[in-house]
Amino acid sequence: VEFEVGFFESILRRSPRYTRVIEILGGLYTEQGRIADGLRMDRRLVRLQPSNPTAHYNLACSLALSRRRTDALRVLRRAVQLGYRDVDWMLQDPDLEELKEHKGFQALISEIDPQS
Asked: What is the pTM of this model?
């Protein structure tokens, strides 16, 4: 992972708006436990792609991992408004563990899939 991080960081230095690299780095940082760096990449991606539901979903995950529940729920709701609908993954995603008992999360899941 260390090699990959260095590799993608070097690409990003040359191409700071390369959204696929920003997305990959966000995931790698999170995998390494570098939550603040992952959050920084996710915010950057949302600024570059404000209508991308997956970018918002990933930002919500980073916010949840940072224990910022209110912000995470707000951004997760935005991801859903933009079209994110993978309820099965939302219920399994360990990054959202911080939210799963929150009534706002449960209400959002019910809005997307009343059968849940």
From this structure: 0.94
